[in-house]
């Protein structure tokens, strides 16, 4: 398993280099000039030129890329051209917030989604199933933005149960985590239902029933464990994309995460920050995928890594 | 099942309540965007300037009424030839780290601002200053290359604030996040994209603030920002969206304040392109727009229709005219110019940079169609937009483009010179339409060096009348600031330079 992990990490290196090259070129090829943005609509040409020199934007792409890669290898992602702050410091500030929100959302989505899926599968084709699946559909299709605003109006402004926005306490986490987890909940519920239904029709489940197993032990011990592999795959992918930042949820709830940071830096053409954030997101995607693959083995002992 | 949930919710709300009680004497201000930097010299945006204005002080201060008052300088004198400005520095001022303010420090701060290596955007404000010399313990001299009348006004600009050079040196690049000023509040913490906390500075030389601290929150989403002031989590929320004014103002404990701003919104017209180069066409466009309707229906009454190229509250402002909404006259002017059947053009606009920008331009498209002008709209995201409108006159493809200009110095020079002087055409300044009028140039040059306020006023009035009659822009409106304030806040200042100031605020 150690060797497998190591091999996977080594294989990831070329992908990371590819990501770095693509993001480096994309931010520079997009229209817009960081020096111009920093100078603003009021500045004269000489000021723009001075700013360009100050950030080394007048060097050739090759020189800039070499500087960037050398930095990455040394763990230095440069300084934001907008705030002149170290990019690594920015990431160290924002990323934990994103992880906190993504983790809370995925826990909510897994608990509620798997729960709904189980209920649906056990009561398939009854009104309970229909209701649960309509809820799942609503979860997937409800615009985050709209749900977030409704939740703020009802739970915060009218009932006063949770703070409107911000972050810091557990109470601050509830509304954004539920909002963000809603669509994953729907996907996971539907996935659990179909996987469980398929498993429940298998021979070994009939055998378990014939042995006189209780409904609980049949579902949780025999069926669910086998049904969970596809659910885990979906859950892992969802978690990966949650880690990439959730711009809308972060904006509405004023959550200082990577998503908003990335969008702000793209709008400001803040090259070092965009590069750093994308690099971090790529790394977390790779790590989450690897973890999911490793967890398969825990759920399904037939899966081996060698 | 329900009981534990209720208990959890109760516990969580209690925690939230306790959290808010702990900040009972702290004024909470919700801004739309985070500060970019807390280094005043590097500041170009209102959210940063708002925060630095609490931490740092300038030599002079522009009151909300437009008067210039002494702040860190107590007295000034211009030499006979207008080439030297002698400043007396206030005694008994200390920085937040205990360092007393001296003439040496003032010189150091001004030198840092003027150092071309630093490439600050607003350096041009003090371009006239050639040298700063210490001439006494508490006296400095600013030596000028040429007489420059707006200098005092420029020294009120928040980016010329006096910093502690030793602290700037010590912190280097990190100075932006470690401010040390002389202002009534000192810096406590900055969680990016979340909150900036300041506390009252007990060693402040002047009248101490009525609140123990200020907390600036970053709340980008309009609806959330409004919900915060509505629920009492913030005392102040800036930029009330026009569609919410009535609802928020109707709340029993919140009032929406409408304060004029020095920011003018206009569409520049490109004199290098046909048929815009014809004054009759430019006048026709100006007469084709129903500004009152735009102000009321598109902008929710949050603007003041322009009657001059600059807004009231700026030294030099005089109303110089109106372009009545008159589609008939517009068609007639077009016919005279040889465009009886109208013509096709493109309106350029950024998206989301100014209040209701796209919506305003869309409404104008309709109005122009009424007089036969077929306009297509080109919307660009801000940075791509800037690149387009910054092209030099011969190369620019933008016939008409929406822009805003904040005359943040409170002096007409900055509101007119960079925008209308022939020398300020791209790529040098901000005269993006390549406007040129010899008499206007003469007047703007003269008003720059003349130190008699009455004569300057007369010069600016004549220049603005010429600009108006040349229909140099499609004149639109000046923005007003809509700020929601809870009724328990007293003495808050909403400054025309788009800053909310807590210096004299108190909470009941």
**What is the architecture of the largest domain in chain A at the second tier of CATH?**
Orthogonal Bundle
Structural class, from helix and strand content of chain A?
A: mainly alpha
Q: Tell me, what is the CATH class of the largest domain in chain B?
A: Alpha Beta
**What is the CATH superfamily of the largest domain in chain A?**
MetI-like
Major sheet of chain A: none
Number of helices of chain B: 15
Give the terminus-to-terminus CA distance of chain B. Answer: 42 Å
**CATH topology-level name of the largest domain in chain A:** MetI-like fold
| Shape by Cα distribution of chain B | globular
Rg of Cα set of chain A: 24 Å
What percentage of residues of chain A falls in helices of 4 or more residues?
Answer: over 70%
Structural class, from secondary structure content of chain B?
alpha+beta
Largest sheet of chain B: 11 strands, mixed
For the record, what CATH class of the largest domain in chain A applies? Mainly Alpha
- Largest interface (C-beta under 8 Å): A-B, 58 and 54 residues
Question: Your description of this structure?
Answer:
The complex is a heterodimer of chains A (306) and B (508). By secondary structure, chain A is mostly helical. Chain A folds into 2 domains: 19-73, no CATH class; 87-299, MetI-like (MetI-like fold), CATH 1.10.3720. Helix content of chain A is 77%, strand content 0%. Chain A contains 13 helices and no strands. Chain A has helices spanning 2-29, 34-39, 45-54, 61-73, 87-122, 127-141, 144-158, 170-200, 203-210, 215-243, 247-252, 258-267, 271-299. Chain A starts with a helix and ends in a 7-residue tail after the last helix. Chain B has 3 domains: 4-54 and 183-259 and 483-507, Periplasmic binding protein-like II (D-Maltodextrin-Binding Protein, domain 2, 3-Layer(aba) Sandwich); 60-167, Alpha-Beta Complex (Dipeptide-binding Protein, domain 1); 263-479, Dipeptide-binding Protein, domain 3. Chain B is α+β, with helices and mostly antiparallel strands and 508 residues long. In chain B, strand 2 and strand 3 form a beta hairpin. In chain B, the strands form 5 sheets. In chain B, strands 1, 8, 9, 10, 11, 12, 13, 14, 15, 16 and 17 form an 11-stranded mixed sheet that branches. In chain B, strands 4-5-7-6 form a 4-stranded antiparallel sheet, covered by helices on one side. Helix content of chain B is 31%, strand content 24%. Residues 10-23 of chain B have low confidence and may be disordered. The interface between A and B is large, with 58 and 54 residues.
């Amino acid at each position: 398993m150690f060797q497998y992990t190591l091999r996977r990490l080594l294989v990831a290196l070329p992908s990371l280099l590819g990501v770095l090259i693509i993001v480096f070129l994309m931010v520079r090829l997009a229209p817009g000039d960081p020096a111009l943005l920093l100078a603003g609509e009021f500045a004269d040409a000489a000021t723009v030129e001075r700013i360009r020199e100050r950030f080394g934007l007048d060097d050739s792409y090759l020189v800039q890329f070499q500087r960037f890669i050398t930095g990455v290898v040394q763990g230095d992602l440069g300084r934001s051209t907008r705030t002149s702050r170290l990019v690594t410091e920015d990431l160290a500030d924002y990323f934990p917030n994103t992880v906190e929100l993504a983790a809370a959302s995925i826990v909510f989505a897994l608990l509620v989604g798997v729960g709904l899926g189980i209920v649906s599968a056990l009561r398939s084709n009854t009104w309970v199933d229909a209701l649960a699946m309509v809820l799942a559909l609503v979860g997937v299709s409800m615009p985050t933005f709209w749900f977030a605003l409704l939740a703020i109006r009802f739970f915060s402004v009218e009932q006063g149960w949770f703070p409107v926005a911000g972050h810091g306490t557990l109470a601050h986490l509830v509304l954004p985590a539920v909002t963000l987890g809603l669509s994953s909940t729907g996907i996971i519920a539907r996935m659990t239902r179909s996987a469980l239904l398929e498993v429940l029709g298998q021979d070994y489940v009939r055998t378990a029933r014939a042995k006189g197993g209780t409904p609980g032990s049949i579902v949780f011990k025999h069926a669910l464990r086998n049904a969970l592999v596809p659910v885990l795959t979906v859950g892992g992918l969802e978690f990966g994309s949650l880690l990439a930042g959730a711009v809308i949820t972060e904006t509405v709830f004023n959550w200082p995460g990577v998503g908003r940071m990335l969008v702000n830096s793209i709008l400001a053409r803040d090259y070092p920050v965009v590069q750093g954030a994308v690099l971090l997101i790529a790394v977390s995607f790779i790590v989450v995928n690897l973890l999911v693959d490793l967890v398969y083995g825990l759920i399904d002992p037939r899966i081996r890594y060698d | 099942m329900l009981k534990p949930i209720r208990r959890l919710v109760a516990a969580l709300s209690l925690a939230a309540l306790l959290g808010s009680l702990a900040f009972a004497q702290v004024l909470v201000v919700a801004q739309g965007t985070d500060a970019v930097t807390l280094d005043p010299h590097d500041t170009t945006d209102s959210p940063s300037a708002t925060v630095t204005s609490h931490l740092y002080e300038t030599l002079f201060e522009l009151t909300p009424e437009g008067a210039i008052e002494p702040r860190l300088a107590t007295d000034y004198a211009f030499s006979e030839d207008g080439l030297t400005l002698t400043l007396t520095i206030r005694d008994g001022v200390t920085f937040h780290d205990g360092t007393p303010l001296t003439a040496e420090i003032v010189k150091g701060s001004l030198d840092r601002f003027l150092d071309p290596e630093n490439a600050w955007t607003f350096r041009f404000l003090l371009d006239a200053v050639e040298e700063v010399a210490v001439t006494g313990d508490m006296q400095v001299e600013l030596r000028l290359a040429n007489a420059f009348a707006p200098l005092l006004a420029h020294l009120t600009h928040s980016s010329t604030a006096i910093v502690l050079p030793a602290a700037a040196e010590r912190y280097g690049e990190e100075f932006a996040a470690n401010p040390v000023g002389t202002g009534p509040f000192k810096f406590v913490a900055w969680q990016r994209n979340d909150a900036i906390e300041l506390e009252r500075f007990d060693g402040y030389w002047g009248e101490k603030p009525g609140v123990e601290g200020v907390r600036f929150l970053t709340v980008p989403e309009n609806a959330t920002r409004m919900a915060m002031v509505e629920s009492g989590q913030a005392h102040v929320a800036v930029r009330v969206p026009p569609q919410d004014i009535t609802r928020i103002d109707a709340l029993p404990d919140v009032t929406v304040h409408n304060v004029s701003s020095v920011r003018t919104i206009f569409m520049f017209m490109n004199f290098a392109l046909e048929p815009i180069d014809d004054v009759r066409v430019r006048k026709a466009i100006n007469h084709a727009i129903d500004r009152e309707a735009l102000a009321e229906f598109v902008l929710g009454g949050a603007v003041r229709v322009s009657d001059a190229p600059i807004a009231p509250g700026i030294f030099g402002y005089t109303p110089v005219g109106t372009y009545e909404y008159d589609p008939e006259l517009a068609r007639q002017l077009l016919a005279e110019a040889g465009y009886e059947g109208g013509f096709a053009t493109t309106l350029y606009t950024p998206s989301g940079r100014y209040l209701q920008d796209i919506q305003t331009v869309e409404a104008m498209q309709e109005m122009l169609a009424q007089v036969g002008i077929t306009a297509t709209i080109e919307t660009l995201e801000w940075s791509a937009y800037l690149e387009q409108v910054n092209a030099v006159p011969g190369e620019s493809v933008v016939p008409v483009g929406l822009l805003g200009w904040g005359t943040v110095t409170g002096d007409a020079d900055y509101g007119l010179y960079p925008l209308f002087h022939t020398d300020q055409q791209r790529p040098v300044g901000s005269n993006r339409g390549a406007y040129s009028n010899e008499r206007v140039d003469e007047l703007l040059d003269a008003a720059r060096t003349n130190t008699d306020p009455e004569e300057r006023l007369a010069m600016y009035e004549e220049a603005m009348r010429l600009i108006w009659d040349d229909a140099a822009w499609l004149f639109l409106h000046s923005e007003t600031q809509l700020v929601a304030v809870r009724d328990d806040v007293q003495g808050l200042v909403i400054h025309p330079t788009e800053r909310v100031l807590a210096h004299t605020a108190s909470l009941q």
